[in-house]
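Final report, Chapter 2: Outcomes

The project's central promise was a pipeline that accepts a single protein chain and returns its three-dimensional structure in a standardized token representation, suitable for archiving and comparison. That pipeline is now operational. To close this chapter, we reproduce one record exactly as it appears in the project archive, with the input sequence first and the structure output second.
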Amino acid sequence: MQNLLSRMILLILLFSIVVPVHSVSNNTTGASMLDDIDFAYAINWSRTYSSKLQYTCIDDFNGDGVCDITIFIGTSGGWFKDVEFVDPLTNKTLMKYVSNDETKMYVYAPINDVNHNGYPEVMIIYANNTLLKVVLLEPGTNTIVYERRHPIDIKGVLYSFTSNRIVYNDTVEFTLLSTSRVDYKTRTYIFKINATNGDLLDIKVYDNVIYTIWYNNQPIDVDGDGLADTRSPSPVVKAYFTSSDNGINTVVEVSDINGLWSWNTSKTGYYIAFSAFTYNTSHGEVVTIRYNRLDIIHKTYNEMLFETHDLYNGTPLYAISYDLRRYGIYSILLFRDYLILLVVDNDAGEARIDIYDSYTGVLEKTINMGTISSGEIFTGANIGDLWGDNIGDLLVSIGDKLYLVSTNGSIDYLGRMNGEIFLRNKNTVIHDNESRLYLVEVKINDYTYKLYAITLRENSTITPPELTITKPKNNTLLETPFTVKTVVEGEYMEVPVLEIYSNDGKLVLRKEMTLLEDNIFTTTVETLSDGNYTIIARTGDYTSKPVVIRVDNTPPRILVISPKNKSYVRDEVLLKAFVGDDNLANITVSINNTVITKLSKTEVQQLLHDNILEQRIDFSKLPDGVYCLEIKAADLLGHETTARIILYKDITPPTITITLPDVVGINNIDVVGKKYSEQDYYVNITVKDNIRVDKIIVIVNNKVITTHYSINRIENIHVGFRLKPGFNNITIIAYDAGGNSESKTNIIYLNTMDPVIESFEASVDGKTITYKVKALVETNFSRLSLIKIKLYKETPNEPELIYSKNIPVDDTLEYTLEDEITVQEDGKYILEITVIDVTGNNKIVQKQLVVDTTPPVIEIKDTKLEDNKYMIEWNIYDEVSGIKQILLYVDGKPIDVTGKTIYTIELEPGTHNITIIAIDNNGNKAVKQLPQVTIEEENIIEEITKNPTLLAKAAILLVLIILAIYRIKTR
């Protein structure tokens, strides 16, 4: 029967590994069985995943002679749900199965070719506390043979499992262990499944309270009382093993059921670390290692022997594969005669191998493997009886060293790994018919994995390999990345690696090469700094002839020493530049993309001294402008570097334009008005250059007003300054960046004299205003320009402009204007005359005029007659020009009553005519005739008699009248 140890389930810890080197045999105990070891990539498989994987080499599913890999893909919770079958020879996926069920774990079992179609089947068991799913896969044909879900009630949480074994009638048994979260009791579940179609045939449950023992679907009556036997728990959980070999039925109390795990954790400190078993045609063994005891059950044809041995005088011995304690048993290998234990003392930093007699349990040999470094992992894997000498063999890794250990005590050192290879017992290593050992589970980095193989030959002679680097050739100039090809003739012990050494002999790169075809290997060097290197291809202790290369990834370096960037040139320029590169091919010098010099490799070697290039360049025939001087250097690999500088040729001075505001040209002199004696005078200056303006200086009356710096081709500035009365000199000096200069001077005369109005006359006739004005200028640096006439009518608020007229006077020295204005309304008016000269200076004069064509208004307010006295009261007014005189006529005789508003007249008896005349200041007259007034006549004698005073007055008046008449006649 094929060794079932190679079929047990395994959760594998993965660690980094890189290319191994050829090893030397280190025979520590006994004679070495190996003279030559071909330690090479028999299979060069690599794959990267995004999560942790579990590998096992199950079988050659597709029949190509190479063991195929089963890959279990982990989930974020640490459980494995998906399974993938990979052919490492082609790195192709044979089959992939993805489980959508929320199961917490799965177990898997290769069950050989049960349906006899030439391809082995694999059974995957997914289980949680409520579901058991059975999937039968056939990777060789990429088909799912069977898939079924079975509801179950485990009533606990699964935490471990065992592999299967095939029993009668193609029935497979699986054992799952569960721990209840309620009572923490251990239960053992044995599932019996039809290997052909996956049908669930039976489930047996064992716990530490009562055991009911079953066999062939029937309870077992051990003591013959006709009842199914039960057993109360004992310090060691025990079940029954029943055998019917050679027709003899024997029931033996053992600690393991047909190699299926079971243990009891109800007793404090009582642990089972491993259970292992073997089968062949004649016998089988079961080994159980507990807290500090080793139990061995050995089955012969007719009996079962059960022995218990204390280990290490009571020293606690732990063998929990995922929790390294003080001691760890990493591999338990049971062969026909020997049990090999690999023991690590992490506290002491030591490792050893203990070999027990599997019949007696006696420790026969202890092999000290030496001190291990902190953090090193000590692992091992059973490869069975490698040479057919009835001696078990074991592959062991300690840190990065790989050993072959046999139960006769011999140890062969196979080689050193550039990293840690993690071997596990059981399925990690498979020994095929070509004596190849497959290191299935090797981790390169976090999630990249590889499959390695070792071919072991006994007492054979290996033809030393001959390595030849065919690419690159010796003394080749290269740039990275570059490819290295190596041809390997003969038998190589490991895949060649490329080693690159620097000029001082230091190893700078060691990289595994990949098989390209037949015996040709290749690899790519991605990065390497510039310099000289020696490259060697190596397999084990064999190397190729060294090949010298020079790596040049850097383009030439160019530094222009002179002329400086953005400098100015005139006729000739000396170009001086540093051009650094040991592999220069050519140098090209050009101006504005026109090549003026091109130096070949030979000319470069002749003309360059200490990497300095010197060359004279003629600019004399080139026009003013901007020039790009370009130096381009290329090396032998085609790397190019270009250095550029900007040069200016400028022999033309700048141009200056001055814009003077408010100037008048008089007698070839720019003249401005007197307002600029009280405020700054601003001029606009524009300087243009064909390359770049550098500086502008403004000088006024021999004093620098401002200095303006520029970087533009056209520069505009706005400068203000004060002028003095009379002549002012304004000088602009402009410089360009090439040192050329230009100046320009303007003379400005500041005229501060106003024009003169020599005479101004105005009169009113009716509604017509007649005026005459004479204006002149008293300086030769001015001329009359304009006369403005404005007539305003006075209003209660502000004067109202009712008439405006501008009369140009044509740039004269003197001018007389006569004109008239007719108005529509009476009123008071202001006549304004403004005389303006050509510089803006002005003179203003005004006259007030009255236009009044309306007579005054006479209103009689009251009249009264008492006796001969007549009283008159009036209201006389004129709103425009006012009242000049008021006359009261009585019977044609005037009485001047100007300024009075009431007057009383003594009238003689008789009828009287009374008239009031009012005259305004403009001569307008108003007449008001009052009604006639009559005074009745009385007896005069009586009156005089009554009034002697009156008589006297009358006499006097008569005399005066006679005198007046006399005078008039005498004239």
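Archive annotation: The radius of gyration is 67 Å.
This record, like all others produced under the grant, will remain available to the consortium after the project formally closes.
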